[in-house]
Design goal:
About 45% of the residues lie in helices and about 10% in strands. It is of the alpha/beta class. It starts with 8 loop residues before the first helix and ends in an 11-residue tail after the last helix. Bound molecules: alpha-D-psicofuranose and manganese (II) ion.
Length: about 425
């Protein structure tokens, strides 16, 4: 397919030409440093080259809170423009070649044409996300008090039907997974029978599972609270893994980093889910207090590193089908979403590269010998390494920009788009 990338290739080449000499110098210096520790930098670069993370179609527009939304001049106003912005992120970062769509937000009439359009921008589609946490105009049965777990059979049927439609759309788009997150739960003690609500959820998800193609996964996304503030039906990884086990081998768990109680040990959850063959994927973001949907690595980069440390550890003990889906799920309320997503992809890639640097043999030996300080220092040594020359070299080699945010600003993309894209609404509401 003939690809037509949004930013002029000359611009990227020119950007790189002024920086490539310094980068080579930094890469070689890091290479010598790593070699002294018995690590070949080109091996790490090869792994980073193959690393990819999907971007959410809903993340390229300015997000908002229930208080306000501050529009950004030149932000995308329709799916074509969203894809264009996703293509910019991938063109410059070369780490995000897939887009995760959300329905009905991304509904169109011709999905074959949409797939073609994305392909021309150098993009493909990742897991489809269903939405039964919001009523659509004229919807016959409201999701206000539940969707897949609703007490009302007609409401459950509607929610199931929507998920089945998402699978059909996903097939046309070339996706191979559906992520199911429901807002179902309760705001008041006594509002809901915990057991019956879960039973209804399990019955509904079984109907969706039955329609999954053989080579598809169904990813169950847990979340402790919001919009239900007292209890949610799939509140944590425990309920999620039990549901996935009951549904069958194509059902796995998706870990959204923001969906846990503060201070929960997420890296340990990753290890547990992998141990039982149920680690399906991630929604990366960062948080300080709740589901803040901040940029990955912006608050707690160490946690991100520890998550990847478990993933690299899991590679040593791979279970059949171990291939977690990496996606970003963020809300960019005060930054340019393109810049945030480029920065997040960089943080996620860096966390992966650092985890690859951990001397596993030394770590395991220290763990076996109960040498606490040595084990801890083994992780610290890797975490302290500045791996940015590796990521930059990989980006340049793949045709991206050495300093992607600088290149994005040099290209003047947002200013150019502000002149041609329509202004967007300031309406408050969680996007
Ligand atoms: C819910 O908070 C969530 O993390 C789910 O993944 C949704 O699909 C997404 O956010 C919607 O913004
Ligand atoms: Mn999510």
């Amino acid at each position: 397919m003939n690809t037509q990338l949004p930013i002029q290739a000359d611009l990227v080449d020119q950007h790189n030409s002024t920086r490539s000499e310094a980068l080579r110098d930094e890469y070689d210096s890091l290479g010598r440093q790593l070699e002294r520790a018995g690590v070949r930098i080109d091996d790490i670069a090869a792994r980073v080259t193959a690393f990819e993370v999907a971007i959410p179609s809903w993340g390229v527009g300015r997000g908002g809170t229930r208080f306000a939304r501050f529009p950004l001049a030149g932000e995308p106003t329709n799916l074509d423009e969203k894809l264009e912005d996703c293509a910019v992120i991938n063109q410059l970062s070369r780490a995000t070649p897939r887009v995760s769509p959300h329905f009905p937000w991304d509904k169109v009439t011709d999905y074959a044409a949409l797939r073609e359009e994305a392909g021309q921008l150098g993009l493909a589609f990742d897991a489809v996300n269903s939405n039964t946490f919001q009523d659509q105009p004229g919807q016959a049965h409201s999701y206000a008090t539940g969707s897949l777990s609703s007490t009302c059979a007609a409401t459950r049927d509607l929610a199931i039907e929507h998920n089945l439609e998402c699978i059909e759309i996903g097939k046309a788009l070339g996706a191979q997974a559906i992520t199911v997150w429901v807002g179902d739960g309760a705001n008041f003690a006594g509002q809901q029978d915990f057991t019956r609500a879960l039973d209804r959820y399990l019955q509904s998800t079984a109907a969706i599972y039955a329609a999954l193609p053989d080579d598809w996964l169904m990813m169950l996304e847990h979340k402790m609270y919001e919009p239900a503030f007292y209890a949610t039906v799939i509140q944590d990884w425990g309920t999620s893994i039990l549901a996935a086990q009951q549904l069958g081998p194509k059902a796995k768990c998706l870990v959204d980093l923001g969906h846990h109680a503060p201070n929960v040990n997420i890296e340990q959850i990753v290890a547990r889910l992998h141990h039982f063959g149920k680690l399906g994927g991630f929604h990366f973001n960062d948080s300080k207090y709740g589901d803040d949907d901040l940029d990955a690595g912006s608050i707690n980069p160490h946690q991100l590193f520890l998550v990847f440390n478990e993933l690299v550890e899991a590679e040593l003990n791979p279970l059949e089908g171990f291939d977690p889906a990496y996606m970003i799920d963020q809300s960019h309320n005060v930054t340019d979403p393109i810049e945030s997503m480029i920065s997040s992809a960089e943080e996620i890639t860096a966390a992966f590269a650092k985890a690859l640097l951990v001397d596993r043999e030394a770590l395991h030996a220290a763990q076996e010998a109960n040498d606490v300080m040595l084990a801890y220092q083994t992780l610290r040594r890797a975490y302290r390494t500045d791996v940015s020359p590796i990521a930059a070299m990989v980006r340049m080699t793949k045709g991206g920009a050495i300093a992607p945010i600088a290149a994005y600003r040099e290209a003047g993309w947002r200013t150019t788009k502000a002149a041609v894209r329509k202004p967007t609404s300031t309406a408050a509401g969680i996007v």
